[in-house]
Amino acid sequence: MGEFVRLDVEDGIGTIRLDRPPMNALNLTVQTELSEAAAEAGSRDDIAAVIVYGGEKVFAAGADIKQMQAMSYVDMARASHGLQDFTRALAGIPKPTVAAITGYALGGGCEVALACDFRIAAEDATLGQPEMLLGIIPGAGGTQRLARLVGPAKAKDLVFSGRFVKAAEALAIGLVDEVVPADQVYAVARERMSRYVGGASLALRAAKEAIDRGLDTDLGTGLEIERMLFSALFATEDRSAGMTSFVERGPGKATFCGR
């Protein structure tokens, strides 16, 4: 447990909880603690899926601008690798992840949400990449992950303008996957992640890796990544259990051990 970020585990689901009132601003300490929580969540066998959650009022309202204001080019050139490292760590969790978004997910907060596999937003949530209004651009993955998620034209609209997006529009453009009443965000996120508890964890890891790595390359290379990961799963006990169960009892009845 860090000063501002903790990892709670219940019933196979890990919750990475941001807790830096009032707005969960992502200072260097929060960034480091998010990286540490992501690494722990990825390595623990008792965690099948992960929720990133900022609490009932706000997800994360961006970077700590007061901390950044006095930084020079040299300062930021040195710090910028760390700025991307914490969202890379979240995106690299080898398990299904979902951002449970309440209140604001702006700037770095939106980039944290983009680093997750899924995004569930409250009906009154607000998302956006307003860095342009500060004379900069997103620096923790926003220009890259946003364009891959919603397409280049919509990403350029949001990044060029810096405008805020309400939950309904975010759903319409594919920025979030589901919009629910604010008091149900975390519960719905848990329900979504619960479907992976007890699942074939090695196959889930392989599927996530194949999709994410494939998006970063050409089709032929992506197909080769898929082929290698597919073949590797035939060395696992889960593959044997899954296929044996299917042949003997039909689909959906296998018990997996994660080996």
Automatic annotation (TrEMBL):
Alphabetical list of SUPFAM superfamilies matching this protein: ClpP/crotonase
Annotated GO biological process: fatty acid beta-oxidation
Signal sequence coordinates: none
Keywords: Lipid metabolism, Lyase
Domain of life: Bacteria
InterPro entries: ClpP/crotonase-like_dom_sf, Enoyl-CoA_hyd/isom_CS, Enoyl-CoA_hydra/iso, Enoyl-CoA_hydra_C
GO molecular function: 3-hydroxyacyl-CoA dehydratase activity
Keyword Endoplasmic reticulum applies: no
Residue ranges crossing the lipid bilayer per the database entry: none
Reaction catalyzed: a (3S)-3-hydroxyacyl-CoA = a (2E)-enoyl-CoA + H2O; a 4-saturated-(3S)-3-hydroxyacyl-CoA = a (3E)-enoyl-CoA + H2O
Assigned EC number: 4.2.1.17
Family assignment from sequence similarity: Belongs to the enoyl-CoA hydratase/isomerase family.
Protein name: enoyl-CoA hydratase
Species whose genome carries this gene: Nostocoides jenkinsii Ben 74
Organism lineage string: Bacteria, Bacillati, Actinomycetota, Actinomycetes, Micrococcales
